Amino acid sequence: MRTVLRKLGFYVLTAWVAISLNFLIPRIMPGDPAEHLINQFHGKLNPAAIQALRVLFGQPDASLWSQYLSYWHSILTGDFGISYAYYPADVGTVLGQSMFWTLGLITACTVLGFVIGTGLGILAGWRRGSWLDSLIPATTFLSSIPYFWFAIIIVLVFAITLNWFPLSGGYSVDTTIGFSGDFVASVLYYAVLPAATIVITSVGGWLIGMRNMMVTTLSEDYVRLAEAKGLSRRRIMYSYAARNAMLPSLSGFAMSLGFVIGGSIVTEVVFNYPGLGTTLFKAAQAADYPLMSAIFLLITVMVLIANLIADVVYVFLDPRTREG
């Protein structure tokens, strides 16, 4: 428990530093968040309108400390201001609408790719030299292809040439949004190609990494001791070999979950999927500083939470990390 509390304190401190940097960096840049919107009017705004925009989208006249306190108040209350790109919607509403799509597709497919790749890697390492080893060259080749290029190829073949799946979007525009059978079926139908892109391009890395770690772990003394004691092969494979071989993959999986929003940008843009990746892309195009700041904050928090969970799981999986 002492180890877990110490790690929790470290991540709380890291979160404070990261959030403070997220506040400070945009404010030390030249100009202010309202500058981009004002420039779009090419000097046709009168001074009163310019001041009104500055008040609406920021507080350039307030002290840095006052802005810092207001920023923390916004984080604790979930009020991140007005979005430029989706004006007059507020940032919280935009995040709430797009987060559902990213968590439902990108996160689920990342977990699915990890489970499939790790499971195949365990079997390939346990039965090295079998037909499972023949999967490694194919999956490694697919994982080495840039996933945005692979997404374009999938769209070209299955959406344009064969016309089996829709070209882009998250659901049919003719379907009413809600928890109905038609809407769920439409969402799943539109998610086939993006999901296939993520899973196929991610399985290879997990497979070869887990397979190599299994081969290394099987030569350890504790595995040989378990075999000498006459334990079942299934128990040796999962409780002794796979449990220890999975530790390096677990750290990589935590990082992949943390960066799921940033990594989803290209995939969602190719398929025009209405998730956080597409939202961040549009926010960058429109110089939507409040929305970008909120998404960067979300990425920071997700990375820290994912790594904290991985460290806690590490403590329970590997007794060597615990304090006496």
TrEMBL record:
Q: Which Pfam families match?
A: BPD_transp_1 (PF00528)
- Name the keywords, alphabetized: Membrane, Transmembrane, Transmembrane helix, Transport
- Location (main, coarse): membrane
The record's annotation in SUPFAM superfamilies points to: MetI-like
Lineage, top-rank taxon, reads Bacteria
Q: Where in the cell is it found?
A: Cell membrane; Membrane
**Gene3D superfamilies named among the record's database cross-references:** MetI-like
InterPro entries cross-referenced by the UniProt entry: MetI-like (IPR000515), MetI-like_sf (IPR035906)
TM regions (residue ranges): 9-29, 100-126, 147-167, 187-208, 245-271, 291-317
Cellular component per GO? plasma membrane
Q: Which residue intervals define the domain ABC transmembrane type-1 in the entry?
A: 99-310
> How does the record classify its membrane topology?
Multi-pass membrane protein
Q: Name the GO terms of the biological process aspect.
A: transmembrane transport
Sequence similarity: Belongs to the binding-protein-dependent transport system permease family.
Q: What is this protein called?
A: Peptide/nickel transport system permease protein
Q: Which lineage is the organism of this entry classified under, starting from the top rank?
A: Bacteria, Bacillati, Actinomycetota, Actinomycetes, Pseudonocardiales
